[in-house]
Write a structure and sequence with these properties.
single chain, 574 residues, six-stranded antiparallel sheet, 37 strands, disordered N terminus
Length: 574
Amino acid sequence: MRSNMLARVPVMWCCLALAAPTPPSKWQTDGWSDYWSVNGTTDYIACRLNSSDSTVDGFGSTEVIVNETGSESEAHCREACESAAFTCLGIEYKSTASERKCELWSEAPQWAKQVSSAPHVCRIRRIHHYRRDARGFADLAADGGEAACRLNIDDETVNAYNTLYQNRTILQPVTLEGCKTSCESLLNCKAVEYKDTDGKCELWNVRPLFAKPAANHKCFSFDRVLTDMHGWSNLVDESSGGHACRVNFQDTSKNGTFDGVRYSYDAVNVTSLQQCQDVCAADTTCRAIEWKDRASGAGAGKKCEIWTRVPEWAKPTPDHVCMSYRKPRFDAAGFWEEGPGRGYACRLDSTDTTTNGDGKGVEAVGVFTLEGCKQACISNPACRAIEFKNRTAPLADGSEPAKAGVKCEVWVAEPQWMKPVGEHVCMRFRRDHTDLQGFTHLGNDSSHACRLGNFDDNTTDGRGAGAAVPGVASVEGCQQACLNNPACKAIEWKDRPLTQPKGGKKCEVWTQMPGYTDWVSDHICMTFTPGASSEQRESTSVEEDESNCYRVRALLAWVVAFAVLCASVTQGRS
């Protein structure tokens, strides 16, 4: 009997060797496949480039990490592959008592072989399985098809084990756009699942790792785009590594050209990212920039592209930066009324982990409205911004949300960053002052251009309300031009170095009052109110008179007290 069994062993191994491998059939939404297998076995499988590959390294297409960082586990091996960006399309991982080995494959393994020496696994990575749009949503269905969200490949539930966002399991009926907007407004939203037949929207607080084919369903992961306090947004999850702007996923050009139309132009004489941003901010048509700074090699040099539409994709490209832009705009009271501040909490900078700017955000007690919070800021000479929270609406099941309440913080330092937090608003504040001539300096003389109306002026002269005055060489001269014009309501002054785009000096006298300002480098916007200076002087005079009166009364009181004291002393001696 024993001899018969031994005789069968070579036959058994022969059958195993000849058995065709089973390729992966499921894909996680992070781009990783399930495991190659042979006869149902997945843990003794080595990668091969193709069916004729008799090598152990895919004909030299692997990079090997042995007993080093990246080889600690299969998960570490996958991370090492992901860090290699587009140069890694698969992994083979082997682990024994004496050796941990991670192979990074630059070509996707198209075959697999069963081995007996030690546990091996083989997986493929599809880096184009899904890509994020500029808002941060990625369609997780293969090739844009229909699919429902699942936690992982093995998840067969319909509600991800009931792990939806704070019990807000259903929004219904809503549109797909409404579903996405609801996700954007929530702090922990990681994905949405939408069913178009009945307008059903599910908001997820965990990232689905699998999208299961399902009719009439769409599954989108969500990664919030990073935005700073000046209106700039990185169109990637992590700004490191470099990304170039693309019109959409089908855009194969390198300058924003799609269907015969170019949506960008090259800015000249630009030598830094800051200058590229300044050119964009000065152009009312600018929606994004692409900045390249490559020290050496192919395509070396610096280049600034100004984009007239928001890119729908940012392609990983070394030495490039792709950023969208939304102009910070301030209302007449000085608050940043329009911008990415809604749904965000203030932070000192991107490293600030406190909730009050390390003490720079001081709670205003007894304030229960946004307008009241603004007034609390205006009345505080040190105020630079406000953060207002209004989290009072009950959840879908009627329960109270976490950390519910209303709160106003007056910030005495200007926040440079914002963190996505639902039901919060962060608004910068600029304090204006009026000089002795009656000119109100909007934004403390920081860079602001005048705009007409209510955040709807896309011109640079207030639709004709601003007329250029030739021959003016200084801001004082521009003010004098306004004083000489009885209809003057404001001035806009530009003083930009001639070496920069649209450089030079320019004075505009406005015959209508600006409704708001745009941040534009090298510009100053001042409103003019005749008599404002005299009112200011009268107010100062009244204050001085009251102060002088107080001093006189205090002096008389001191004299009377001294006289009484002297009288009492004299009486005591007598």
